[in-house]
Amino acid sequence: MNVTIRLLTERDLPATRRIISLAFGTFLGVPEPEQFRADRDYATTRWHTDPATAFVAEMDGTLVGSNFVTRWVAWVSSVRLPCTPICGIVVLASS
Questions:
Q1: How far apart are CA 73 and CA 61, in angstroms?
Q2: Domain ranges for the chain
Q3: Top-level CATH class of 3-94?
């Protein structure tokens, strides 16, 4: 298993959007997690705001997670790490 963290690029946005919906929809237990808030596009708006603070995780060449760093004055936060369910299982199993 090879995991890579890199900057999010524009071509990653559709997959990132799906992962965010799937991750939060699964966490909240909605019936169709991939459709969770499908009408909202957090990934694109956050990426356009500051592409240098948007990251993705790839596992064996497949996009499995994303993260957006938030800057508030002198405080930096990276609170949520949306990832695919299989990625979450692998991360938990390895900890």
A1: 35
A2: 3-94
A3: alpha beta
For the segment 39-73, what is each residue's pLDDT rounded down to a tens digit?
A: 888 889 889 988 998 999 898 888 988 888 877 66
**CA nearest to 57, candidates 30, 38, 84, 35:** 84
Task: Kindly give the pairing relationship between strand 75-77 and strand 70-72.
Answer: antiparallel
Q: In sequence order, what E strands does 1-95 have?
A: 3-7, 54-59, 62-68, 70-72, 75-77
Summarised one tens digit per residue, pLDDT across range 2-48 is 888 899 999 999 999 988 888 888 888 889 888 888 888 888 988 99
Q: Give the burial class of 90: count Cβ atoms within 10 A of its Cβ; 0-12 exposed, 13-18 middle, 19 or more buried.
A: middle
CB neighbours of residue 52 within 10 Å:
9
